[in-house]
Design goal:
The protein is an alpha/beta fold. The chain has 13 helices and 8 strands. It folds into 2 domains: 3-97, Four Helix Bundle (Hemerythrin (Met), subunit A) (Up-down Bundle), CATH 1.20.120; 111-303, Rossmann fold. Helix 9 (177-190) packs parallel to helix 10 and helix 11 (236-248) runs parallel beside helix 12 (266-275). The chain is elongated. The two termini are 13 Å apart. Bound molecules: guanosine-5'-triphosphate and magnesium ion. Guanosine-5'-triphosphate is lined by residues 117, 119-125, 147, 150, 153, 202, 257-258, 260-261, 283-286, 290.
């Protein structure tokens, strides 16, 4: 998944190493090379530095790393000492990937989690995966079938609920999603359950009516966590979605799906950087087990 980014950064490191080494003949004569005096990459010969940074930029942009992040990484590299390049990049990536974390395992019962996002990104599947994950932690869960809009959405989530042996609170198609969420919360309170997971219909952030409906679900259900689900394959679109859903509805964290099919890997860095919100999990397949808790250090190890 992050192989391409790794090869881009390792090429930069190799080139910097090569270009900042003392030429052999000078070393042998123990004469100081001009490069020994230079301690930051910025002082490399202009044309060489430009080549390194141009290649880096192209590599990152074509692999879904957003422009602003690419610029920041270029600056980091320029300001770094050649020998400390890896350490400096590690620090920068860590800063980008480690937004203020949230703890979805803490809170007053029932903990309410609402899933939002555009059509087809994997909201319902991710909700079911998280339900299964919570069950493994011995938590009692109820699901709210808050997508009352898309054909077969209720049957789809019913099938998950049946498989997982979890109660599903549902109304009929066309009914108010906020009312479904409200009922599920009442059910959880009455049964002293640990979690209410609220599904919602997919929608474009540009559709004002549907966004207002989502605001209503949020207002009524007062979720502890509003999680935006984005598809990592959509690249910069995922970043736009994260920003706009963040502005209009407010989000507490992001789950990136389809990481198993994403060869570029840049969406992880871009979404984290542009939203400043934590990535909580990565979706890595279609089965319940394919939900990996996000770990910045693991990701950095795979990149550098
Ligand atoms: N490979 C892969 N497929 C995934 C992942 N997550 C979801 N999918 C697939 O993506 C498709 C859409 O998933 P849904 O969960 O229905 O998406 P949704 O956001 O609820 O869709 P709407 O309700 O129509 O807006 C399904 O075929 C899922 O199996 C993932 O992490 N990896
Ligand atoms: Mg759905």
């Amino acid at each position: 998944m992050l192989g391409r980014l790794k090869s881009i950064f390792s090429k930069v490191k190799k080139t910097v190493d090569k270009e900042t080494k003392k030429p052999k003949e000078i070393k042998d004569k123990k004469k100081p090379s001009i490069l020994t005096k230079l301690n930051i990459i910025k002082n490399l010969e202009k044309t060489k530095l430009k080549k390194i940074l141009d290649e880096l930029e192209e590599g990152l942009l074509t692999n879904n790393v957003a422009y602003s992040v690419t610029e920041e990484l270029k600056k980091t590299i320029k300001e770094s000492k050649p020998k400390e390049l890896k350490k400096t990049l590690e620090k920068k990536l860590k800063e980008i990937l480690s937004a203020d974390s949230i703890d979805i395992y803490k809170g007053e019962k029932p903990i309410k989690i609402m899933f939002i996002g555009v059509n087809g990104v994997g909201k319902t599947t991710t909700l079911a995966k998280l339900a299964s994950h919570l069950q493994k932690k011995k938590k009692k869960v109820v699901i709210a079938a808050g997508d009352t809009f898309r054909a077969a959405a209720i049957e789809q989530i019913q099938a998950h609920a049946d498989k997982l042996k979890i109660n599903l609170i549902k109304h009929s198609y066309g009914s108010d999603a906020a009312a479904v969420a409200f009922d599920a919360i009442e059910h959880a309170k009455a049964k002293k359950l640990d979690y209410v997971l609220i599904d919602t219909a997919g929608r474009s952030h540009a559709n004002e009516d549907l966004m207002r409906e989502l605001e209503k679900v949020k207002r009524v259900s007062k979720p502890d966590f509003t999680i935006l689900v984005v598809d990592s394959l959509t690249g910069n679109d995922a970043v736009d979605q994260a920003k706009l859903f963040g502005e209009k509805i407010g989000i507490d964290g992001v789950i990136l799906t389809k990481a198993d099919a994403d060869e570029r890997g840049g969406a992880i860095i871009s979404v984290a950087h542009e939203t400043g919100k934590p990535i909580l999990f990565l979706g890595t397949g279609q089965e319940y087990k394919d939900l990996k808790e996000f770990n910045a250090d693991d990701i950095i190890k795979q990149i550098l």
